[in-house]
Amino acid sequence: MPETQVENRAVGLVNHMNAAITNVRLYPATSSLIEVSINRLNSFLDGLFAAETSIVYAESEKNLLVQGEPLPEKEQKKPQIQSFLNLLLTFGIKSLTFEQGVTAAELNEFVQLLAKSPENQEDALHLKELMEQRKIPHIILDEKIYIERDAEQSILSGMDISDEEIARAVFGDEAISEEAKQELRELAKQPGWLTQAFQAGVKQAAAAGEGGEAALAERLSKLIDGLEAVSAADRREVSRTFIDAMAEMDDEVLLTLLNQDLNKVFGPQFFEELSNTLDDETLNRLSERIEKMIETAPAESEKNLQQALELLKATEKVQNRFEQTDNKTAESLPTSPAGETKSSGEQLKALFNRLLNGDTEVLPQLTLMEGLSQAVGKLMAGGRASTINALFDRLMEGLESKNPAVKNGAAEMITEMDGSLASNDRLAERIEWSKKLSEWVKQEAEITEAFKTITRQLQGVSETLIREDESDAAAHILEAYQLLETGNLTNDQAIQALAANMLQNLATDDILDALLKDKSGEGEKPDEADIYSLVILGTTTVERLLDRLRDSHNRSERNRIVQVVTQIGDPALSPVVERLNQEGPWYYLRNLLLLLGRIGNSGHIEILERFLKFDDFRVQREAVLAIQNIGGEKAGQKLLNRLDQVSDELKPVVITVLGLMKYRKSLPYLIMSLENRSLGDTKESKAEINIKICEALAQMKDANAVPVLEKIVRTKGFLGIKSHEPRLRTAATKALAEFPSGMNPD
Known about the structure:
Layout: H1 3-26, H2 32-49, E1 54-60, E2 63-66, E3 69-70, H3 73-76, H4 79-90, E4 95-99, H5 104-115, H6 121-125, H7 127-133, E5 139-141, H8 163-171, H9 178-187, H10 193-208, H11 212-231, H12 235-245, H13 251-258, H14 262-266, H15 270-277, H16 280-296, H17 299-313, H18 316-332, H19 344-356, H20 363-366, H21 372-382, H22 385-399, H23 404-423, H24 427-443, H25 449-467, H26 475-485, H27 493-506, H28 509-516, H29 528-538, H30 542-551, H31 555-568, H32 573-580, H33 586-599, H34 605-610, H35 617-630, H36 633-642, H37 651-660, H38 667-676, H39 683-700, H40 706-714, H41 726-737
Antiparallel strand pairs: 1-2, 1-4, 2-3, 4-5
């Protein structure tokens, strides 16, 4: 399997890993979704093992490496990749290897472990031990990965000067040419380079060791100035780059930094900016690292580290986080029920009334009450619509609360109410409520338990609507999660990954069956809504659609899949190209060529060109049409170059396409071939080819073609050779009729 295919499939494997982990977090252990996602993961790995003995992921400078090589920058930025990378960082995993022979049972155990985020760094360090206990021999953590590189090549610089020389140049200790400076500026744009250069610079600054801490701080500040000049970015942007990397820096570099007055090195309010820049997970990791370092640091460093930790904890964001943690702890403590003399039913009624009157703070207590489900069911079955809608509005207010317990309580009650609506077939109300909930998920800034609960509920509503041929009514839900998944509404990678997973989970075989079903003969609504839903779902499950395209024996279904993948466009391009490098039935390959012609570009013409010599004419013909669809100078030149080499059966198709493309560079060759009747091995094929040449010349309407066409029409014989057959003379006559009167050759 070519390297790019391995890379593409490895990215696909990441998506399946994320989906499996998210499903374990979202759904009960008995859920069939978990089993399905593990089986998909296992099946995908088997496909990779057909060409590779092991699949290796590694983390380097917050970039993901596959088989020892970094993914392209475009792939690195995808939320699924970032989510997977954050998972590795959370567990402190530097490399993750899947070896041939891994079983579904091993994958299930491994996913179960990863789904439980570690509460502290110690838990993360125990991951290897837990894997040994659970017998997961074919998944290996932190195996040393060796990458062959030229001994003279500098990993940091990528130039003919060493990393140390670059650091000296940045400090101003060593002059470099303008040409080298420009090259450095280009190099500084690469992911992770500034961070590496900074770490090398810090080590050099510390190694100098002259003048004590004041001199070191001054030298670090000088380092910032130098890197600012090299990267063509302002000081603030450079500083933020290093802030982002602090939690992952070498202990030696981090200790050197924390021994300094960082407000002086990086500017005022450094720790406040640090806390605002890093996410909660990274802040936790950094805080825990500093606490660990305090335990083992030399006496002269302990005071500075302690001061840095206190400054970090004193920032507004971290203080708020600690307060929220304290509040959550207090909320989880058992409390005496209000009004102990009242019956449970009376308490429920009183709490419901308080909620209806706008007191959303009762939600945590209300959701813990016995008999809540029965009370909700009774209300939904016999309550007035105005009361039910008023209650739903109060719950929507609860979802907006900053108190996590209130937010979660609102989500739980909404799910209860939706379940009651579902059991009573009140679909219209579920649709109206889902519209409001879809707007709510679009404005959420982070994943909460409430967000997960509402996501599960909206997935259920979508499934019901699609199964009942109401996919148009599910469009607002799918659109909301597509906007989240593509990053159009949020930069939060966890939300993007969860949204992608929701869409992926929704695209089950029975849902795809319902959407792909041809309703045109049943007098039902048009298929546009189904196609639209498939396009949204297919963006996250292109591989599954292409699998169905390969395996389907229903021509109508295959046509609909082609229509969907065409509309998906660019996200489907790489999987389609990869499938064309594999074997398959002729109709599958023909459809893949059709797709590549629709969504590809001139860079894909060489791939299409290979199929001009395929052993099935229908595939050959589709390759020609796909090249025509892409069009352009390159397409015309490739077809002209191949005209002599393709089969006699295909030559008329190529000539027709050259005419339709009006590729005038083919004129001399076509005119010469018509005069000499040189193309074709048999009399019949020659006739067919020459007729198509006449038609192509008529399409181009070039005056240089007039003489040869007139000779065919005018003479009973041609250049002393026996006369042309009537069909060819008729074709030449029709061709001449297409030319403007009086047209003469140049």
